[in-house]
Every structure is written in C-alpha cells, then in structure tokens.
Amino acid sequence: MLDIKWIRENPAALDAALAKRGADPQAEQLVALDEARRSHVGAVQALQERRNAASKEIGKAMAAKDQAAADALKAEVAKLKDELQAGEAKERELDEALKHALSVLPNIPLDEVPVGADEGDNVEIRLGGKKPDLGFEPKEHFELGEALGMMDFERAAKMSGARFTILSGPLARLERALGQFMLDLHTGEHGYREVNPPLLVNDAAAYGTDKLPKFGDDLFRTTDGRWLIPTAEVPLTYMAAGEILDEQQLPLRYTALTACFRSEAGSAGRDTRGMLRQHQFSKVEMVSVTTPETSLEEHERMTASAEAVLNRLGLHYRTVVLCTGDMGFGAQKTYDIEVWLPGQKAYREISSCSVCGDFQARRMNARCRKPGDKATRFVHTLNGSGVAVGRALIAVMENYQNKDGSITVPDALRMYMGGLTRIENPN
Fold first, then answer.
1. Helix (H, G, I), strand (E, B) or coil at 50
2. CA torsion, points 394, 395, 396, 401, in degrees to nearest 10?
3. Binding of L-serine: at which residues (predicted)?
C-alpha cells in the first residue's frame, strides 16, 4: 500500500509511475477522497469539542440553579450525540473508501526498471549453464512421464478435475528429492531459516501480503472464510505483521517447502497439457525482511540463491528483469529466472524474485527501529521462488531425458534418491 501523504505531496509522480505500468491516473481522485475524509474528520472533531463543552456547561447551569439553561444544554448534547453517531459512521465509510482505493493501487516501480508493455519488453541480464546437446528429438515432460507410467493426468482429473497430476514411483520420489535438496541448500548455505507454516490463512494475512482484494478470484476460499495459500510468501511474510523488529536482528530470512493452491483465473487455454500450470503445486519459497537501506542488496542475494539451485542441477537458464508492464502488483522490481525446456524448445519461468519496499509492511504494520530509538519505520519485504518444485521436475525430466525415454538423475539429487541413477519404465 502506498502512503497517502506521499501521494498528496507527489501527485504527478504517482500518475507518472502508474503510466509506466499502463494504468490510468489516480492522483486527483485519491487526493479528493482524502480531502473529503480529512474535512469530515475535522467536522466530527468540532462536534466532539462542542459536546464536551456543553456537557461542562450543564453542570455550571445546574449549580447556578438555571434549569432552563440546563434543559437547553441537555437538548443540545442529545442532538450532538445523534449528529456524532451519524458523523462517525460517515467517517468509517470514508476511511474504508480511501483504504480500498489505496489497496488496489499497484506499487511504484524503481527508476531502474525498464519501461515496457508486456513480457516482450523484459530485459535479459545474464545466462547460466549450457543448453544440452541431446542428439535426438526431445520429448515434453508429459510424454516422458506417461510413457514411464509415473505421471497420470486421467486419474487425477477423475478425482479432482483439470489441472491436477498424480505422480508415482521414482518420479514422485524425484519431486520430493528436489524439494529436500532446495531446502538443504537454502538453509545450509544461504542462511535461510526453515519454517513449516499453515497452509490456510485469514483475511488479514491475505490482505497484508497484497493478495486481497486484488487477487481474490485467483485464490481458493474455504467454507469457514479462510484462504488456501497461493504461495508460502503469505504466511512467511505475515510473520512480521504488527511487530516492531530490532534493526540489529535484520535481515530475517525464511524458507519453506509447501503445497500452493491457485485457481488460475484467466488462464483458460494456457498450458493445458502437462503440469506446467496446476491448481496445486509444490514450491520452495524464500522471504526476507530487511531495513530500507539493505533491501536492494538483499534482492540481488536472493536471486543468486535461486540461480544456485539451477546451477547445482546443471540446468540452462536466463535471468531477466521484468519491465513495468509485466511486473507483479506488489513489486518495485522483479527478476524472473527462466529455465530452458528442450521439449518445448523454450524458456519458462521457474523463479520470480521481487523487492516490495514498504508496500506490504504498510498493509500489515511491520516496523523496525534502531536500539535506543523511539522512532520506528516500516521494514522492507522481499519474496522469491527458490524454486518452483514442479517446474524443476519438468526441467530435470526434459534436460536429462535419454533416447530410450529414461531419465538420468542429476548428481545433486542422487543422495536423496537412495543412489538411484536412472528412472526407467519397470515393464
């Protein structure tokens, strides 16, 4: 959430930033809404002051045995009470209207973010690894998985509908191995603290991490009003909600391997084959909570941690900085890491690492201060995939496939596979 005071003082800057994102200007409307709210608050305060003064005057009139004056003042206080109740109700309406208007406003891109309309304007900044020379026409992951008898879309659809998958046998173990490998790497070498968070969160957590109200249609809601997490970013980031953190303890770095749930609203017809775009998938998430001065450095560090996963797995990838038109709602700047899939002959996103500044911190009131200081300030938050486990499985299958349809297990995963070096059809 953006600061309304900043918007009042910088209306042109807000509209210029929104224009970079391809959004309409909002400053005039927001400032007018805030002015109406502030004016009304002033009027309510004036009513409160007059009611307090009149209440004191009643006592004086009674002491002077001026019953007529006392009765008139009592009538005035009763009227003021009714006006205050109506005024306070209107104040709550204006507060809620401004809060909603701010809550659907995207974050301000950093100046260094390239301006563009869509993914075609993203800028490649580096390449990692090498494309494999398989020496034969590669298959896509779903062709490999079904031929192995270890990837079943039909049975999954029978019990759950489209965009679900059943993995079995060594392929299921390979997915589990990937998640374990990533957790061990991030906790053992990258300084992240492992967390096992709830998969269900309340409105406050979803709102505080900018998923509500903007992305309500892309979330699954339970009958008791809670939300299935779309990513562990939500519970990991919300751990700082309402806290005043000691700046000497920052940055806080968390990682978690969880199931994630998304309705994929608006993705009809996209990636309908295979398990690239699922309603349920596993992901290792990374979250950092930092001081404002260190968040950009932490962003580079987080992205390098995600790239390290692909380097250890021997996968080719490219890292791009997203343009303003392709960047996520809550991000100031985002790096996407796209892994090479030989079967698709294309790069596909496998990690997205974003710095959000104080955008989420304002929504969930997460602050920090230096030891001995009374003044507080909002923390900065970052989140990134470290990486999407299902997509890593796809990448390993397609990059390590053999001509006979078997899959070689990467060296980094063999200790998690009980020494298994190759996955092949047992029949």
1. helix
2. 90
3. 231-233, 285, 385
